[in-house]
Amino acid sequence: MSIVTNFMAVPNRIAIGCEYLQFVGNAGASSEDFERALSPLKVRDEQGGTSIATGVLKELEDLGLASAGEDGNIRLSEAPGTQRRHFASWHDFLVPYILRLLVFHDVAAEHRQRNVPEAIAWLLCQDSTRPVRSGEHAELLAKQFEPGDFEVNLDNDSRFQNLVYWCTYLGFCESFASPGDRSGRCVADPTRAIRRVLPEVFDRMGRLPIEAFVTELAERLPVLENGDVRESVERRLRTEYQRRERHFSQSTSLALRRLELAGDIRLFQLSDAPAWLRVSGAEIATVSHIERVEAAT
Q1: Global pTM value
Q2: Would 72 be classed as within a structural domain?
Q3: What pLDDT score does 179 carry?
């Protein structure tokens, strides 16, 4: 089970579970008290026979946020409980905490989120000019991979919707619904995720060559270009869907353009400098250097 398959453990419930365990303090809470707090009406999943609280607790434990003590009571794990004090809210803490857990192969596997990084990377390979409607993902997977080449189990709409839900929460896509469209659509767009790591990427440097920027970004978000997760997915794509060398994908191109328009960064093309191509729909631009505006002023 993972955040993709555990339909009960959506981000707001994870945050509520953490808040409740923080409220009860060091004494912790019995599983019955935890269930009563999160599932007062005892709503049960028809397939698994478990309550909402059971699903949330399972994910809290897998994500390293909570654990049961020798007395059987559930408590916040020590590190997250301590680190949370430096954030204004559980939401502010959980986004960067869970982001790290879901983008690195080894960390994800350690927290029972195997293949989730690949699912995120695959979504970021999609054309941002063509929003993906829930239910269309199966057709895209069939077109883009040979049978058996993509191990992530997104075999139904609910799992895809859960992936989109979490990717939206973590800043890898934007989702929306139009009138009469109950299923909704999503646009691959890592703007918010990239903005979050910009201070680390630049590390007091005002300007970086684009190759250095891509390398630093991939080290922190390996689901993006040149990251090991992204490369493992791109290698398995059918040839016609593979990204060309030194080309940003549509999703990263969109994010860079949005960050530039928002005043977070400046993109440059210096003469004779090695460059990458940013492709946004029909617009193609070369980029050799990137400057973080905050660091430069």
Answers
A1: 0.91
A2: yes
A3: 60
